[in-house]
């Protein structure tokens, strides 16, 4: 299961809000992308996805991801911190 730092949750919430302005049915999905993490705009979860709910934020997560999602500078880059 994926956990979110407060900073990652804030960045995801801003992204979700921006996506919803263009497409009210849009949601976000966190997935692996060639050794890094991608956040994509989707219209619902993929089969088997986990969903993280934090306040008004709902993010679909590829079930292969585990650890803690954080954000680092520059440019608010998402990073995955492996579970201990």
Q: How would you characterize this protein structure?
A:
The protein has 84 residues and is of the alpha/beta class. It has a single domain (2-81), classed as Hypothetical Protein Aq_1857, Chain: A (Sandwich), CATH 2.60.300.12. Helices cover 20% and strands 45% of the residues. The chain contains one helix and seven strands. The strands form two sheets. It has a four-stranded mixed sheet with strand order 3-2-5-4, covered by helices on one side. It has a three-stranded mixed sheet with strand order 1-6-7. The longest helix has 17 residues, at 6-22. It is globular and about 35 Å long. The two termini are 13 Å apart.
Summarize this structure as a short list of keywords or feature phrases.
single chain; 84 residues; alpha/beta; Hypothetical Protein Aq_1857, Chain: A; four-stranded mixed sheet; 45% strand
**Large-scale geometry:** globular
Q: What percent strand?
A: over 45%
Structural class call reads alpha/beta
Count of alpha/pi helices: 1
Task: Summarize the SSE layout with pairings.
Blueprint: E1 2-4, H1 6-22, E2 27-33, E3 36-42, E4 50-54, E5 57-61, E6 67-72, E7 77-81
Parallel strand pairs: 1-6, 2-5
Antiparallel strand pairs: 2-3, 4-5, 6-7
